[in-house]
UniProtKB/TrEMBL annotation:
GO cellular component: HslUV protease complex; proteasome core complex
Compartment(s) of residence: Cytoplasm
PROSITE patterns: PROTEASOME_BETA_2
Keywords (A to Z) from UniProt: Allosteric enzyme, Cytoplasm, Hydrolase, Metal-binding, Protease, Sodium, Threonine protease
Family that this chain belongs to: Belongs to the peptidase T1B family. HslV subfamily.
Protein name: ATP-dependent protease peptidase subunit
């Protein structure tokens, strides 16, 4: 069984940050410590992060970019169309990854079961240490003045201290959001 990556997305004060750790594990062995599972898509207008198979996550990013072009750049519609195809199309049904994507207005979690979930509090997390990162970011959002990037970095740090499948080699991307 391959386990890898914690991905965390936070929105705060007109900014959105998306980050992931770099660990890839196979069983109880660390295979790589510096993988990058976050990407900027659509000429930097969209951030994407994936947990699970790297090949499948990259394929999903490519499919999302194609959907964006097909629907004239409508982010939400492209995500719904991708989730629908991912669930129904025989070619994509076996893609084993979860995807968090964010534009200037919203952050969405996409899954192969057709889920398109928007965070109520502006925070989404997936992957092996996702729940740890989510809990840390929520607590810090409520009880600190940290910006979106700081919340992502701190959440990933906490996850790396608890989850054996998460390390401290984080990549964080940002874009300005609508407040």
């Amino acid at each position: 069984m391959i386990r890898s990556t914690t991905v965390l997305c936070v929105r705060r004060d007109g900014r959105v940050a998306l980050g992931a750790d770099g660990q890839v594990s196979m069983g109880n062995t660390i295979v790589k410590g510096s993988a990058s599972k976050v990407r900027a898509l659509a000429r930097g207008k969209i951030l994407a992060g994936f947990a699970g198979s790297a090949a499948d996550g990259l394929t999903l990013c490519e499919l999302l970019e194609a959907k964006l072009e097909a629907v004239g750049g409508n982010f939400t519609r492209a995500c719904v169309e991708l989730a629908k195809d991912w669930r129904l199309d025989r070619r994509y049904r076996r893609l084993e990854a979860l995807l968090i994507v964010a534009d200037k207005d919203r952050s969405l979690l996409l899954s192969g079961t057709g889920d398109v979930i928007e965070a109520e509090d502006g925070i989404l997390a997936i992957g092996s240490g996702g729940n740890y990162a989510l809990a840390a970011a929520r607590a810090l959002l409520r009880h600190s003045e940290m910006d979106a990037r700081g919340l992502v970095e701190a959440g990933l740090q906490v996850a790396g201290e608890i989850c054996v499948f998460t390390n401290h080699s984080a990549t964080v991307l940002e874009l300005e959001a609508n407040p």
